[in-house]
Amino acid sequence: MESKTFLVVDDSATIRQLLTLTLRKFNGGGQLKIIEATDGREALEKVRMAEYDLVLTDIKMPNMDGLEFLHRVRSELENSSLPIVIISTKGEEEDVARGMALGATAYLTKPVSAPKLLETIGRILGQGGQD
Amino acid sequence: MSSSDEASGIFAKSEELLEILRKGKTFAEELLRENERLRMRVVQLETERQDLTDVEPLEELARLRADNARLRERLDAIDRRFSEMETANHDFARRYEVIEHQNEALANLYVASYQLHSTLEPSHVARAISDIVVGLVGAEEHVVLLRDGDGLSVAVGEGVDARFPSGRVASGEGIEGRVAATGIPYFGSAESGDEQVACVPLMMSDACVGVIGIYKMLSQKNGSFTSIDHELLNLLAGQAATALVSSRLHVIHNGGAA
Asked: What value of ipTM does the predicted structure carry?
C-alpha cells in the first residue's frame, strides 16, 4: 500500500484530533502519516521543508490564517499543485468562492462528517476513501 | 388359299383378340384395385390431416398454456421474493448507515472527552468545550459560562459580546441564570425573538459549575438543533463539568485561584 502523508492545520487541538481520528480510516488506516500544525505560519514552514500528499486547513487561525497560507503556497512554492482542502465554519457562498478562487482543491464546512471528508480526500487522491 | 385355311386364320386372330381383351380386363381390374387402394389412402391421409390440424395442436396449445401459467406463477413468486429481499436490503442499508453514524458520533465524543481531560488549566478546558461545540454540534454564536461566586462569568464566547456586556450573568437571570439555578437544560425560543436557543448546565453531582449556551447554528446546519445535537450536548456537558472541576481542584491544590 502506498504511503501517504497528510498535514492537518487548525489552532484547536480538539479539532485536529477529531480530523485525525477520521483520517485514520483513510486507505484502511495503513501507511498513513499525519502531521499537525497550529496555524498557517507553521504549516507554511512544514510544506517548505517536506513533501505532503494533502493538506487540511482551517481558515480562522492566529498568526497566519488559512486563506493567507493557501495564497502563499500557491504563489511561492514549487509544489503549488499540493491538494489543499479547507475545512471551515464559514459556509456562505462567498466564503466558498473566495477559498476556491485562491486555489483550494475542495471546501468543506464544519461540522464535517467522516464519510464526506473521506469521500472528498479519496476523490482528490484518486482512490477509494474508506476501507 | 382354301376356305379351311381362311377359317383357321380367322380363328387364330379371334383367339389373339380374346387374349388381348383378357389382358385388358386384368389390367382394368388391377387399375380398379389400385384406385380403391389409393382412395383408401386418401381417406386415411385426410383423417391424419384432420387429426394434425384439429386435435393435436389444441392439446399442445392447452399444454403450453398450462406451462405458461405455471411459469407465470413462479415468476410472480420470484418477483414477490425479490421485492421482499430488496426491502430487507434497504432496511439493512438504513440500519447500517444509522449505526455508522452512531459509531462516528461515539468516536468523536471519545476524542472530545479525551481532549477535555487532557488539560488541567480551566481556561483550556473552556476553550476545548467551545471547540467541540463548534466542531461537533455546529454552533456559531455560543458561550461557555463558568460558576463565579453566586453568578456566572463568560469564559469563552463567539459572537456573544452584545448578549453579555458585563461578562457576567446573575444567578436566576435570563435563560442561562435559570438553567444554572435549576440544573435543567433548555431547548427552545429565545426570550426576545424567534431564534432557537440551547442552554445546557454543566452538572457535577447536584452542583452546576457552568453553562453552555448556543444562540445561532452555522448556516450549513440550517439554523436548527437536531435530536442528536441535544444528545451530544447533554453528553458533552457531563464530561465538561468533570473536566472543569478537576482542573479547578488542580489549581486550588497548587495554590492558585479557581
From this structure: 0.73
